[in-house]
Amino acid sequence: MSVTAEQKQAHELGVVALQAHFQRGSLSVTDYVLAMLAYARAVMPEVQAFVHHDADIVALQTERLTSLSSAGAPLPALFGVPIALVDTIDTCDYPTEWGYAPALGRTPSVDAYLVHKLRQAGAMIWAKARTTALGTDECAATPNPRAPGCSSGTAAGGAAAAVASGLVPAAIAVQTHCEVIQSASFCGIYGFKPSRGLVFNGGTLKCAPSLDQVGVLARSVEDMAAVAEVIVGGHQLATGQLIFPTHIQRICEQEPPLPPKFMFVKTPWWDQMEAAAKEAFEALADELKDCMVEVELPASVTHALAWHQTLLEAEMATHLQPLTNDQDGAVNACLRAIFDRGNQVRAKDYLQAQERLQVAADGFAEYFEHFDAILTPASLGAAPQDGTGDPVMSTLWNFAGLPCLSMPLLQTETGMPLGVQLVAGMRNDARLLRTARWLKNRLG
To answer: What pLDDT does 437 receive?
Structure first.
């Protein structure tokens, strides 16, 4: 892999840095794109993060952005920022094939709503990131650029690897179980899943609609905030509630009015963690003892994992099984077993699990009256060599729909990344990002 100094400088630029360069005029979008394309040609054969990347599609977008800049019009927020999308998000130029052989060549006629918003903000849809079959919890085929020979995660593994290797400064993926948080942890980058309902996911593959939540992957807290601000809001929920855009980036960049206070939650799965990960988190807890206390989970979420599994399997059977009819050879035994269990879920159990979604979120309300965020592991350990690892450290927060993020603040003695997960109260997304930025600065 041969990378020039110019290409290296280009691929190291994050979202916020690109915003500043393009707004000042100190970097032309054409020069940047040429450097990034050259870097991609050098790196892609090794990283294998993209399933679709077309220089002609990139060139067409570059031409449109150049025309906008030449006209002297104000530049939109993400002008010229290349973003990769996991291949379960519809795009009208690139194919969207769901990582699923029977869907090869599927090209939607319209963009997903979040893609429309990204384009309106001037972002370039750079590529479609490799994903697992129908976005399920298989091990991603993409190598981990930060941990050679190890897993990059599950359905968001390709997107996380693309960000970690510098192929793009940011990517968008969908979390149904653990995808965004765990892949970010394994690949040593940042991952952010906003509160349930803040990002409209129309035009994304429906895996388990009660649990599907769009997330952002990037190399800094500030970069995640810049992208999240564009895709959050501007839609109406099924309840009739309007979700308005929020000044997420501006709030993230502010200093907290008071030093944040944290709750350290080991969770009932602490004993399953790898010894090296335990040691790293215990050392972190000791370092933050002046602003953090250890707490237990509320009783209201005792059965959250079982409720999550009920919804996951029932809804996957409803929404994904029809896509696999007459395609036995394209569906693995694990997915077939999920469909079988999902078809056996009783209506009363499904409805009870649905009711518990809000109960789980409400169970933490009192906690966040006194504290800014929960601090907990993002995964049970570093990226495994085989498989995906147990997603249990993400399951509860995804079920509750609370905003959460993973930060690459720790590592094992061998240098493997370990993600630190922060969780905040419902709809306190901007505050969570601000708190994460403060914590990063505190720890240096």
So the answer is: 99
Residue 172 has phi, psi (to 5 degrees) of -120, 135
Query: Can you give the pTM of this predicted structure?
Result: 0.96
Q: How many domains does the chain have?
A: 1
pLDDT digits (tens, 9 = 90+) for 126-155: 999 999 989 886 767 898 998 888 999 989
Residue 197 in domain: yes
Both structure tokens of 411: 């590592």
The answer to whether residue 27 sits within a structural domain is: yes
CATH number at residue 71: 3.90.1300.10
Lookup result for tokens 């291949």: 87
DSSP labels, 117-158? HHHHTT-EEEEEE---GGG-SSPPSSB-TTSTTSB--STTHH
> Which pair of structure tokens corresponds to residue 121?
């903000």
Range of the domain at 244: 5-252
Sign, Cα dihedral of 264, 267, 271, 275: negative
Asked if the structure places residue 260 within a domain, the reply is no
Question: CA–CA distance from 331 to each of 99, 174, 327, 368 (Å)?
Answer: 11, 20, 7, 43
In sign, the C-alpha dihedral spanning 230, 236, 239, 243 is positive
State the pairing for strand pair 235-236/213-218.
unpaired
State which amino acid sits at residue 117.
K
- Give a yes or no: residue 393 inside a domain: no
DSSP label at residue 377: E
Q: Cα(131)–Cα(29) distance, rounded to whole angstroms?
A: 28
Summarize pLDDT for 191-238 with one digit per residue, the tens: 999 999 999 999 999 999 999 999 999 999 999 999 999 999 999 999
